[in-house]
Design brief:
By secondary structure, the protein is of the alpha/beta class. Among the domains are: 53 residues, Oligo-1,6-glucosidase, Domain 2 (Oligo-1,6-glucosidase, domain 2, Alpha-Beta Complex); 81 residues, Sandwich (Immunoglobulin-like), CATH 2.60.40.1180. 26% of the residues lie in helices and 16% in strands. An eight-stranded parallel β-sheet has the order 11-10-9-5-2-1-13-12. It has a six-stranded antiparallel β-sheet with strand order 14-15-16-21-18-19. It has a three-stranded antiparallel β-sheet with strand order 6-8-7, with no helix packed on it. β18 and β19 form a beta hairpin. α13 runs parallel beside α16. The longest helix is centred in the middle third of the chain and has 17 residues. The radius of gyration is 24 Å and the shape is globular. The chain binds alpha-D-glucopyranose. Alpha-D-glucopyranose binds next to loops.
């Protein structure tokens, strides 16, 4: 069990680089800022969070029209964030602490300002024309087919100068690369390789199920849905078998370097897609994002079902991965929080995230309970937010500066931050939570430590416990002779566990940690009353 690789046993922390810590006072977070905060993340003692790996949102050169997900050079560091030397310092400082660094790789598309695209669009016979997906319309004024962009409208953009359309699965300034072209493959594999040579430990692969589209550009069948993008069954424009093949090839590249990993953003409403990208569990993605879990509402039964589905459908040799937040989702503190109970619920959610079988990903600020912020129209940055205003679908509200203290700029910067601070920062910040033993931050720290100390939590099997009352999610984690029970009360009521059917559970259990005092240290599970929003973790005595 101890031979488990780091990406299975560790906790990953997602840093939105622009929003984490600003070292030079220009209002933008940067790499030096992250270096300055490494003690907070992991200084090897109980005083720090204790995370094992950092996933950095894209750090490459970029016009920053989509938070860096519009790359203009895969080999250089965005000057807004620092330079290669600073990156290498960050990498080696992390390694010295036993932490890993994961880079965000955007392989599906580039920025429209990438030199490759500038060449490609310059003329129909440019040697790079075929690096992107160019087609004639199906009739004058009509795009090649009816595929839609994830964001809105046709996925085809008309290019006046050369009289053809180019394909973009996301925004028009993010043209899709043509992965059927061997030169494209060579260039991007080359980029991946050069970062591997530099010593990065892994990659988060953006929209990894979008790399290939149907060669015949067949239209998708129609279906009902909430917004136009969902009116199609995306059979032909995403999750194509070729994408899985390509991921297999990437895996072979990574396998040439010991200890590296890749986790993929599988953007889909079909759970099977997320599992497909894991191949047989050893030959494709190491970890696949399971969006379904992150999209559940605040119901114990909903999370239980989501976990149960993955446990049943994931290939045996693959490993699950869970998250509640990222830079695209409204923050879970608000989304799951309800009107008055957000702080208590956040503790229950954290206990779940950090005790399931699988690798947990924490998004910066989640550990202090940063709520979703409302960004005034004039200060919005996210193109989606601006486009759909006043419909609040923009992603800026989950990207506001990290709240380090209650000062004017929350300890994030010496000057006005690039995005406004969330109004919660005077009360909700690292400095205050650090000083309060009952804070969410200290709860995260304790959970992470417990996970590290208990093989059953890190590596053990998962089994839902039957007989829990409505609103309670209860499960067992077992490894070797060790059994840990996780009891999560999602409801605002006190509940009795007397009908719990604990496998071989008739004995006594010892409380490891709990959000509420438990009366005595050793109990029978069936005699427990859980307080409203109580999370308790016990081991078999
Ligand atoms: C992914 C990213 C998102 C980005 C999009 C386009 O979904 O997570 O932030 O806008 O891809 O690259």
């Amino acid at each position: 069990m101890e031979a488990m690789p780091w990406w299975k046993k560790g906790v990953i922390y997602q840093v939105a680089v622009r929003s984490f810590a600003d070292s030079d006072g220009d209002g933008n977070g940067d790499l030096r800022g992250i270096i300055d905060q490494l003690d907070y993340l992991n200084d090897g003692t109980e005083a720090s969070l204790g995370v094992d790996a950092l996933w950095l949102t894209p750090i490459f050169a970029s016009p920053m029209r989509d938070f860096g997900y519009d790359v203009s050079d895969y080999l250089s560091v965005n000057p807004l964030f620092g330079d290669m030397e600073t990156f290498e310092e960050l990498l080696s400082q992390c390694h010295r602490r036993g932490m890993k660094v994961i880079l965000d790789m955007v392989l599906n598309h580039t920025s429209d300002r990438h030199p490759w695209f500038l060449e490609s669009r310059s003329s129909r016979d440019n040697p790079r024309r075929d690096w992107y997906i160019w087609r004639d319309g199906r009739a004058p004024g009509k795009p090649p087919n009816r595929w839609r962009a994830v964001v809105e409208g046709s996925a085809w953009e008309w290019d006046e100068a050369t009289g053809q359309y180019y394909y973009h699965a996301f925004l028009p300034f993010q043209p899709d690369l043509n992965w059927r072209n061997p030169e494209v493959r060579e260039a991007l594999f080359g980029a991946v390789k050069s970062w591997l040579e530099r010593g990065v430990d892994g990659f988060r692969l953006d929209l990894i199920n979008f790399l290939y589209e149907d060669e015949l550009l067949r239209d998708n069948p129609r279906k009902p849905g909430l917004r136009p993008y969902d009116w199609q069954r995306h059979l032909y424009d995403r999750s194509r078998p070729e994408s899985v093949e390509l991921v297999r090839e990437l895996r072979r590249l990574l396998d040439g370097y010991p200890g590296r990993m890749m986790m993929g953003e599988v953007f889909t409403d079909t759970r099977e897609d997320a599992v497909a990208l894991l191949g047989d569990g050893t030959d494709a993605l190491h970890l696949s994002f399971y969006l379904h879990f992150a999209q559940r509402r605040w119901r114990a039964e909903a999370f239980r079902e989501s976990v149960g589905w993955l446990e049943e459908n994931i290939p045996e040799r693959a490993w699950p991965c869970y998250y509640l937040n990222n830079h695209d989702l409204p923050r879970s503190f608000t989304r799951l929080g309800g009107r008055r109970d957000a702080y208590a619920r956040a503790k229950v959610a954290a206990a779940m995230l950090l005790t399931l079988r699988g690798t947990p990903i924490i998004y910066y600020g989640e550990e202090i309970g940063m709520p979703q912020a409302r960004i005034p129209r004039g200060r919005m940055d996210d193109p989606i937010g601006k486009k759909f205003w006043p419909i609040p679908v923009g992603r800026d509200g989950c990207r506001t500066p990290m709240q380090w203290d209650g000062g004017r700029y929350a300890g994030f910067s010496r000057s006005e931050p690039w995005l406004p601070l969330g109004p919660s920062h005077p009360e909700r910040n690292v400095e205050r939570e650090d000083a309060d033993p009952y804070s969410l931050l200290n709860w995260y720290r304790r959970l992470i430590r417990l996970r590290r100390e208990r093989p059953a939590l890190r590596a053990g099997s998962y089994r839902a416990i039957e007989g829990a009352p409505g609103g309670v999610f209860a499960y067992l984690r077992e490894a070797g002779g060790e059994a840990v029970a996780v009891l999560l009360n999602f409801s605002p009521r006190q509940v009795s566990l007397r009908r719990l059917r604990v496998p071989r559970g008739d004995g006594k259990w010892r409380v490891l940690i709990s959000t509420h005092r438990m009366g005595c240290d050793e109990v029978c599970l069936e005699t427990i009353f859980l307080r409203p929003y109580q999370a308790a973790i016990l081991e078999r005595a």
